[in-house]
Amino acid sequence: MAYPIKYLSLQKSELEYEVAVRGETPANTVAELRRQICKLSQVFLSEDILCSHLDPLDDLNSCLEILNKIKDSLEVDTPDKNVLGRIENLFHHLYHRLNRICRDDKFMDVHTECTNMFREYYEALTSLKARSIDPLISIPHSDAQVKPEKLNISVTCEGNVKSSELAKLKYDGKSCVRAFIQRVSEFSVARNITNAKLLSFATEIFVDDALHWFRSVKHQECFHACRDLLVEEDKLEIILHNIRPCYASTLASASQITSIDQLRMICRNYENVQSRMAQFREPSAATSDTLAPEFAYKQRTDLASKQNYNNNHKLEFNKTNSNNSKQNFNNNVNEKYLHALNTDSAPGGKLPYCPRCRNNSHSLRDCQNKEIMCFKCGQKGVKKPDCPNCNKVQIPKN
Predict the structure, then answer these.
(1) If exposure means fewest CB atoms within 10 Å of the residue's CB, which of 22, 38, 118, 129 is most exposed?
(2) What is the full per-residue pLDDT of the chain (398 aa) written as tens digits?
(3) Any idea which fold 343-393 has?
């Protein structure tokens, strides 16, 4: 049986409770309280709130006050229809409120008293509602009246889950999923939280890739919502058509995919391989501080020889290039400053030149003239080191 609550018919004290039990600070005026509860009731339904963080004794005293108000209203001979609606709304409010109070031995007497009063006054309300519908109906005596079925009020108290505690359970899908499941199991046991209650906080626990996965898996029963259930082949075709492109290379290598379970297994294997590749790290080399270095990872000798060969090859190649560059540099210097030694096969097709004869008919090496002369100024009979014109001593001026 559902117990819907009309929040706009509640008074200030009841509105303050409905706002406070949903984790918000109650406003000062009734108008602001109604605006608050109209927004919060759409997010947090009364059936989803299973426990209260308020003081149990204060909460039970407030319930007793409401039950006393209901008793005074029911003592009227001919209550108005609107009054009956208001009383019924208060009963619905009390039903959820009593269910959220944790049963404790200290307050068991007060809780039992509230429960008995709730049942008694609810039976009286039922009879008054029947009389208001048909005024000629005969209400039998209480001794002969068949008692209605008793209300079974079960109270379950679960630990209050705070946002700061949920922040410790954040999971983004990059770390070990087994460690995350173990941590969540320990948390649920320590806080006495059921799996259904813990699953309601899934959107706050999962982040990034894990949240994307949960949102996709959460609606996997959409096929069951169809009136005419699809066959396995049609489901598989729809999934393959809308699958993410990153799985294309893996699915292309598969010979034939005939079921959704086979597709799920292939995709999970691909995700496991990608995860291992992303988390792989090269083992570090053994050092003097390594524990048990004889068991440490050692690189294979063939790989080391290949690496040394490559390094030596690169070194020899660099030496050869440096020697060639030096030789080219020396050749350029010789061609620039020793142009007197040009031969017939000079580069660029230049004509040979003889500085002794001062013509282009032959080179100095092929010159037959043995006459001595200064190559700088051209004076005959002397060489350049002995030339008086080129080796004049300048007398400093006073």
Answers:
(1) 38
(2) 567 888 877 888 888 888 888 778 888 888 888 888 888 888 788 777 777 777 778 878 888 888 888 887 777 766 677 777 888 888 887 888 787 887 777 778 788 888 888 888 888 888 777 766 555 554 444 444 555 566 666 655 555 566 667 777 888 888 888 888 888 888 888 888 888 888 888 888 888 888 888 887 776 655 555 666 778 888 888 888 888 888 888 888 887 888 989 998 999 999 999 989 998 888 777 787 788 877 877 776 655 555 555 555 555 555 555 555 555 555 554 444 444 444 444 455 577 888 777 788 888 788 888 788 887 787 888 888 888 888 876 666 65
(3) HIV-1 Nucleocapsid Protein (4.10.60)
19 exposure class (CB count in 10 Å sphere: 0-12, 13-18, 19+): buried
Q: Sign of dihedral through CA atoms 40, 44, 46, 50?
A: negative
The number of helices, as runs of H, and strands, as runs of E, in the chain is 14, 0
Q: pTM for the whole thing?
A: 0.34
Instruction: Please report, for the chain, the start and end positions of each structural domain, with discontinuous segments joined by +.
Output: 7-133, 163-252, 343-393
Q: For the chain, what's the residue count?
A: 398
Taking a C-beta distance cutoff of 8 angstroms, is the pair 373, 381 a contact?
Answer: yes
